[in-house]
Amino acid sequence: MRIKQISVSGLFGIFDHVIPLNMDERITIIHGPNGFGKTAILRILNSFFDSRYTELRAIPFRKFRIEFDDSISVEIINNIENLQKPKNKIFFNFYKHDLKTDSFALKRVNYRDEREVFLSFSSDDLIPVKEQLYPTKLMNLSMEKSRYLEDYLQGFYSLSSSNFKSQEEPDWLGELRSNIHIRLIESQRLLNFIPKHSSRQSAETPSILSTVSAYSDEIAKLMQDKFKEYGTISQSLDRTFPVRVVKQQPSTDLTDEQLRHQLNELEATRSRLIEVGLLDKDEDTEFQIQPQDIDESTKNALSVYVQDVEKKLSVFAEIASKIDLLRKIINNKFAYSYKEINFSKEKGFVVTTNYDSSLSNSKTLLPTDLSSGEQHELVLLYELLFKVQPNSLVLIDEPELSLHVGWQVQFLKDLQDITQLADLNILMATHSPDIIQDRWDLTVELKGPQK
Fold first, then answer.
1. What is the pLDDT of residue 362?
2. Most buried one in 212, 287, 365, 445, CB count within 10 A?
3. Distance CA 296, CA 188 (A)
């Protein structure tokens, strides 16, 4: 089940947009002038599937329609009373073959309670205020503070969504959300908001952590978990290896040449896993089998050995492919600044510099030492590969942020490689013609009303 088209009417009281998704190549790019609603469309779609009703109410629109490839569609009707105040009632209408079969109304929220929850995420040096949520006290902020405010607000939405999801929902809505998986990668990607009472935060208010640091810790944990799984399978197979060798029936179909090929393939796989940091280098595992060394009993034992090692190493297949592709893409870009990234079970991202400088003897960099553009690229590609389940629709807002033109030109090609490996669908909003290149066939232009 996939989304084939989305449309919105009365967005900001002005715009009507229809966006058919590219079902074949699975990448759709929306573009248009600032203020035409590219980001708002992504956020409405994400808010619906993630039950972020606080955010859904904060975006002014009349109707939002989602059409699926199995003749099902959903309309979100926003009976807005005032574009500046979110005291609106929202209906979800469910259609099969263009016939409405059910309607579900969200309860009105208590505006004061919603605002109080919102303000509970504030800190002394930052007053989170936004026109839709607190229209009487919109602050005159500098550009820098306004940007930081937007970053904080986006984190607030992700933390507070559960506060407004107590209403019982119809079965069809639950089924839709179980079949359609959405992931929004926002323009604010470099800050990671940690809820209060989490393992990394003991204070009453949420904290902010560099996303690249959080993902470095996360990939290390993923690698450790896979290594533990590898160890468990290894112990089980090694314990029964002698018995299985004795019971193994001689195979007349397996030639000496085929056996040597299988052994060489295993060593190539092992070398690749060592290269991406999933296995430790062990010189004792490398050996050569000479033709005269293989008799029938040896062949019998080696055939069992090959089967066992294939089972052990298969644990790493998926994560190794993803790390390998991420490493290849990132290092192709980092080469311009004399940097290189590798991966470690202990440290996660291991960034080194190949540039000799008299100003520093350090060859190892912290992930946070990377430039803004380098962090944006690493975080975005990591999310695509490791944070999204297969067959999801990934919403990417402004992938060009902080990226050099050369990196923008390469982005779509890298994205196609990732979507093929990770089995993803993409809906992307951009201002950059360098991202699009010559693939205008993948684009949908958002236009204003006829004058």
1. 58
2. 212
3. 63
**Tokens standing for residue 167:** 């209403």
Partners of 17 in the β-ladder: 8
Task: Identify how many contiguous H helices and E strands the chain contains and give both numbers.
Answer: 12, 16
End-to-end Cα distance, the chain? 38
Dihedral (Cα; 173, 175, 177, 180), 10-degree rounding: -130
Q: What is the pLDDT of residue 347?
A: 94
Distances (CA, A) of 322 to 183, 278, 332, 374: 18, 12, 16, 18
Cβ distance 421 to 322 under 8 Å?
yes
80-109 tens-digit pLDDT: 655 455 456 889 999 999 898 998 888 765
Distance CA 109, CA 86 (A): 9
- The better pLDDT of the pair 130, 33 is held by 33
Which H or E run includes 63?
strand 63-68
Look at phi and psi of residue 51 and say left if phi exceeds 0, alpha if psi is from -120 to 50, else beta.
left
Instruction: Transcribe 40-61 into DSSP letters.
Output: HHHHHHHHHHTT-HHHHHHS--
**3-state class (DSSP) for residue 355:** coil
Residue type for position 233: I
Question: How far is it, in rounded angstroms, from Cα 100 to Cα 418?
Answer: 38
Whether the pTM exceeds 0.85: the reply is no
If you search the block for the tokens 């955010």, which residue do you land on? 55
Q: Which of 230, 117, 239, 101 is nearest to 176 (CA)?
A: 101
Residue 6 one-letter amino acid: I
Question: What's the whole-number mean pLDDT along residues 166-188?
Answer: 86
Say which DSSP state 367 is in. Answer: G
Q: Are strands 27-31 and 443-445 parallel, antiparallel or unpaired?
A: parallel
Dist. CA 352–CA 344, nearest whole Å: 13
